[in-house]
Amino acid sequence: APAVAVVVAAGSGSRLGAAVPKALVELDGVTLVRRAVDALAEAGIDEIVVTIPEGMVDAFAEALRGAPARVATVVGGRIRQDSVRRGLAALGAAADAIVLVHDAARSLVPAETVRGVVAAVRAGADCVIPVMPVVDSVRRVTVEGNEIVDRADLRAVQTPQAARLQTLRDAHALVERDGVEVTDDAAVCEYAGLSVTLVPGHRDALKITEPIDLVLAQAILEQRRQ
Ligand code: CTP
Ligand code: MG
């Protein structure tokens, strides 16, 4: 089965605060969305649907021109899961294709991480997500006060997240039918009763969210050039 992808890039990037949607912000002269698409293509993903903000078709076509994969764009939805659902609907691959859902904002994900996610689905996992240890001490805040949470039990979740195409479409349909709001595709899969398998994430797959993250991303690029 082929591996295909939805790259979600329809957000505005309000926390980044740039003059253009976050996915069109440039890092070293290349847009974040293009970097994300190129990373997936490098890992052998051959069909990619990119979700984009309304009214931005030309700007995204320009950013994605000449990308080393078959790329189509589709307008995203109100929240991320709406965008994912629209992206999944626009994919032309077979029902048993492996589909990755990836944040354009995780522009520097290494191809090795992408391959690890695909391999785990090929090996039989329902839903696969890359995760990282949590470095901070963590406390849970309640009405009574606050309490320690053992960070050894916690993982921070990244993308790309993967499943079989029909499996993920069905899971999203269920979440949509029930009006459930989630923050990632693993939550969609779990809601549909699927098991979630963890594989190692990577520091470079950080989600570019605030201006300082662009500084870190720039440093990662410089380090890669050495
Ligand atoms: N996204 C999307 N459709 C939405 C909301 C988000 O496709 N309705 C995408 C974003 O483009 C991004 C990814 O989901 O690549 C993760 O979202 P986030 O990092 O929160 O990006 P934004 O929502 O654009 O940023 P902010 O929350 O700061 O406005
Ligand atoms: Mg957001």
TrEMBL record:
Pathway per the UniProt entry: Isoprenoid biosynthesis; isopentenyl diphosphate biosynthesis via DXP pathway; isopentenyl diphosphate from 1-deoxy-D-xylulose 5-phosphate: step 2/6
Family per record: Belongs to the IspD/TarI cytidylyltransferase family. IspD subfamily.
Alphabetized UniProt keyword annotations: Isoprene biosynthesis, Nucleotidyltransferase, Transferase
Site (Transition state stabilizer): 15, 22
Any one GO MF annotation of this record: 2-C-methyl-D-erythritol 4-phosphate cytidylyltransferase activity
Annotated function: Catalyzes the formation of 4-diphosphocytidyl-2-C-methyl-D-erythritol from CTP and 2-C-methyl-D-erythritol 4-phosphate (MEP).
Catalysed reactions, semicolon-separated: 2-C-methyl-D-erythritol 4-phosphate + CTP + H(+) = 4-CDP-2-C-methyl-D-erythritol + diphosphate
Name of the protein in question: 2-C-methyl-D-erythritol 4-phosphate cytidylyltransferase
Top-level taxon: Bacteria
Keyword Transferase: yes
Residues of the site described as Positions MEP for the nucleophilic attack: 151, 207
InterPro entries assigned: IspD, IspD/TarI, IspD/TarI_cytidylyltransf_bact, ISPD_synthase_CS, Nucleotide-diphossugar_trans
A Pfam family assignment: IspD
UniProt source species: Tessaracoccus lacteus
EC number in record: 2.7.7.60
